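Hi everyone,

Forwarding the result from last night's run.
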Amino acid sequence: MPVVLQAGLWGLVGGSALLIGAALGWYINFPRRIVAGVMAFGAGVLISALSFELMDEAWERAGIVPVAMGFLIGAIAFTGCNHLLGYWGARHRKRSLGCKRHEDKIENPGNGSALALGALLDGIPESIVIGVSLLKGGAVGWVAVVAVFLSNLPEGLSSAAGMRKDGKSAAFVFGLWGSIALVAGISAALGFILFADAPPSVIAAVQAIAAGAILAMIVDTMVPEAFEGTHDFAGLIAVAGFLTAFGFSKLAA
């Protein structure tokens, strides 16, 4: 199979967690603690992935200065976009039920589009990273795929449950998240195509920008939900996720 198709399929795997989570959230009423626990574990996995799959590799390719600049640019860009989306109703897109969604509904009665844009903001950098990971020699950075999957699953779950309470139809919800999953696959394929012939410094910059955006996303959207749902256990669960991803990445090396 051509590598570009592999990139697209792996991106689709990561994005499919939105659709799977939406199905679970639509038909099953999960306790908030379980959703938050998955979020905390996924945050730990993502931090491990951006540390070793992105930042460490970027530093080896280009050195500290361009990597540091890219890291800050990614964080600033995500924070700015996320701040704007917060006014449109996507501030709590990774939150489970019972969190301030009612306030969002009052301020933004048609916040489905904002939630979709928020999911795209979270997912496109992650998906591009998946595509770029195949540039190393045709082997996907599976830790990154797992991390993306685990971060998307609670988002689809909680958002779908909230949309159901807001009166959205199943066709709307599954069509929305299915479309975003498809965009994730396309983004991963584009990440491979656009940077296939790029010099190492450019690839390093892309990795650093994505890492900065992902870390800002973790702290802004995942950590609050993880802590509110699991309280004092959030850090421990995140450490378990980090250690699991770190251990498997080293065993696979």
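The first helix runs from residue 3 to 27.

Cheers,
N.
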